[in-house]
């Protein structure tokens, strides 16, 4: 009797297939599916969800890292451009400063040259004045000598002129030395 329950009823649906076996197999299949769902499917689904979340987080993290890398690259590019602009500005300032210093040096040299020229002209003028003063002294001495010779000897106008010319020639020769 029990064997009929376990292995099905004496009713045969088809030839060789018993209804009891079919029900027992279906019952075991349903219990097995419940056990699989409870012990295997739940943890497996949870593990797959965690893995899916981890992959999504990794993708988001990679995207954020890529965006940060692009941002850093843009900042570096901007800093490089700024440093190039700064370097260009420094070079331009250095050129301007060098140009100004060159102009100052040239102006200073011109001023010094003009000062030296003025000083030389003053010295020349002073030497000319000294030479004229010496000449005046020489002329005065000559005049005294001439006067003393005239006093010693009375001269005619032609003689006086010849005497003066000879003294002037003598004075020219003394100055030439």
Automatic annotation (TrEMBL):
Membrane topology: Single-pass membrane protein
Subcellular location, record wording: Cell membrane; Endomembrane system
Transmembrane segments: 20-41
One Pfam family in the UniProt entry: ATP-synt_B
Alphabetic keyword roster: ATP synthesis, Cell membrane, CF(0), Hydrogen ion transport, Ion transport, Membrane, Transmembrane, Transmembrane helix, Transport
Spans annotated as Disordered: 69-91
SUPFAM superfamilies to which the protein is assigned, alphabetical: F1F0 ATP synthase subunit B, membrane domain
Basic and acidic residues: compositionally biased ranges: 69-85
Function: F(1)F(0) ATP synthase produces ATP from ADP in the presence of a proton or sodium gradient. F-type ATPases consist of two structural domains, F(1) containing the extramembraneous catalytic core and F(0) containing the membrane proton channel, linked together by a central stalk and a peripheral stalk. During catalysis, ATP synthesis in the catalytic domain of F(1) is coupled via a rotary mechanism of the central stalk subunits to proton translocation.
Subunit structure: F-type ATPases have 2 components, F(1) - the catalytic core - and F(0) - the membrane proton channel. F(1) has five subunits: alpha(3), beta(3), gamma(1), delta(1), epsilon(1). F(0) has three main subunits: a(1), b(2) and c(10-14). The alpha and beta chains form an alternating ring which encloses part of the gamma chain. F(1) is attached to F(0) by a central stalk formed by the gamma and epsilon chains, while a peripheral stalk is formed by the delta and b chains.
Family: Belongs to the ATPase B chain family.
Name used for this protein in its record: ATP synthase subunit b
Native species: Apilactobacillus xinyiensis
Gene: atpF
């Amino acid at each position: 009797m029990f064997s009929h329950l376990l292995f099905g009823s004496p009713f045969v649906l088809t030839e060789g297939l018993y209804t009891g076996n079919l029900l027992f197999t279906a019952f075991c299949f349903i219990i097995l599916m419940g056990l699989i769902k409870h012990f295997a499917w739940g943890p497996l689904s949870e593990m797959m969800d965690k893995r899916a979340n981890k992959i999504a987080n990794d993708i988001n993290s990679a995207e954020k890292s890529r965006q940060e890398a692009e941002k850093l690259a843009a900042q570096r590019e901007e800093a490089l451009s700024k440093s190039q602009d700064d370097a260009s500005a420094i070079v331009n300032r250095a050129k301007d400063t060098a140009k100004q210093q060159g102009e100052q040096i040239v102006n200073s040299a011109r001023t010094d040259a003009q000062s030296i020229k003025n000083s030389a002209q003053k010295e020349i003028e002073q030497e000319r004045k000294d030479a004229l003063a010496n000449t005046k002294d020489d002329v005065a001495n000559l005049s005294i000598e001439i006067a003393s010779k005239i006093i010693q000897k009375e001269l005619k106008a032609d003689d006086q002129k010849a005497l003066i010319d000879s003294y002037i020639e003598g004075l020219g020769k003394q100055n030439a030395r």
